[in-house]
Amino acid sequence: MGEAFEAPQRRGFGCGLRFLIAGAIVAFALFRYFTQTEVNPVTGEKQHIAMSVDQESALGLESAPVMAREMGGEVPSSEPAAKLVTSIGNNVVAKSDASRSPYTYDFHLLRDPQTVNAFALPGGQVFITYGLLGKLENEAQLAGVLGHEVGHVVNRHGAEHMAKGELGQLLTVATGVAGSDDRGGGQRAAMIAAMVNQLVQLKYSRNDELEADQFGLKAMTEAGYDPQAMLGVMQILEDSSHGGAPPEMLSTHPYPEQRIQAIKSWLAEKYPSGVPHELSTGGALK
After folding, report:
1. What is the pLDDT of residues 129-144, one digit of tens each?
2. SS3 of 109, please?
3. Of the listed 56, 139, 149, 160, which one is catalytic?
4. Measured distance CA(197)–CA(62) in Å, rounded
5. What CA–CA distance (Å, rounded) separates 171 from 151?
């Protein structure tokens, strides 16, 4: 009788302890996330950031060679195509708000001829694959793509997502602790929480892409390029997705139709009388 009476008490105490520990982890995670805030020096936005500018730059520099190896290696900077990427990228940075950011920008052309992609690492490392460059028609389209990626760096999207990722990981641990039992309930709960966290990250990532599109449009315009060229980039991405897997650039990006509508709205707002004639598409890439 005594043992039968005491066992539920021990189980109840264990359950309460698990929830107490889980609550402490949640409180720590939320406190850490919401107190790690900085004001972006370019956008003026208050952001939750998990690292300093120097840490972002160091992370980008350390990761760049690894990313290059995964996509066939980097095209030497002496080759004409790589020179063009660097020249257009530097022009976009120099003539846009990116010049006021605390980062040093490096532009890399990757050899991969199949993957249609462009991306940026925290701290200013910007990449484009041959697979995407070969589909672009003019310098304005290239400026728009690179301006978009620079926008991710300026807006510190990478650092923001790392902070969100750390928060999600801690909340996942807390869920696992709270749901743990002898039947593996904690593991199942942690797996579910991890999936939810990934979905949340995907949602935010799509918002970031639209924000980077807006920055890229403004940046390419300030560099003297016709922002309507980005409509052509969206068409290229859409065409590339037919008959197979979508381009890497669409894996977390909004669908081209959604981005096209956002670009058209931006153009109508900024240039209600039409894009000025002095903005050009630049030289042809083919």
Report:
1. 999 999 999 999 999 9
2. strand
3. 149
4. 26
5. 29
